[in-house]
Amino acid sequence: MHELIAQLLRLYLPAGAAPEGLEAHLDGRATRSFDLVRNGAVRCIVLPFEGASGGWERLCEVANAVQGALGLPAPAVSVSGTTGFRLWLSFARPLAVADAQRFADLLRATHCPEVPRQDVTAPVELPPCRQGATGKWAAFIHPGMGASFAEEPALEMAPPSAAQAAFLHGLESIDAAQLHHALAVLQPAVAAAPALPQPQAAQASYGQPSGVQQDLLLRDATLEDIVRFLHAQNIEPTFRHLLPPR
After folding, report:
1. pTM over 0.90
2. pLDDT grade, residue 184 (50/70/90)?
3. Which of 67, 122, 165, 212 is the most buried (most CB within 10 A)?
């Protein structure tokens, strides 16, 4: 258990001592969500892939894009213990909440707009943990094992803590240079898209905020505005990076 907690501290938790209740959470005695924000900064972002978001196949596509198109280290993969999977991206240094949210929004808009927008300040259930709704376990998995969980992304029994630590041991965090490169790839893709007129029908349908004008330009829109507008026009966003066939 000590090594597993050490790896969680290395990758995802705020620097310092393990939060109260973490050991009981990890061994299944009391599942809880943990606040990962400290001093206005976070060490990780988590992307959920549920059945409606394409599940395992979509997670693989995004994980490949994270490493290929963006040049980032391999993210951790977990089963949720309920209905889906999670990608875990770790930052080597705490990233200001606003910057982490911007990065998460850019990543989502360019590679997985169907995934619900995640608030990077929201508490998270760190794997491994037992889910009260199902009695089954969320856990980190080796990416090569993922397809075997496609129908049921959960473990029946508690995973050995040593194995969970081993899955995390070889992972690296995103350093400042890698993050800068990824943003340099993501931001021009969004900024280069054409201006988006805001017809009244789309505005009414999607409840645009009053501060968004009808002549809204893309550079003034949030990523949510962009994706909602394109979907309202039955257009799938095309400003995403595609990996060449292997």
Report:
1. no
2. very high
3. 165
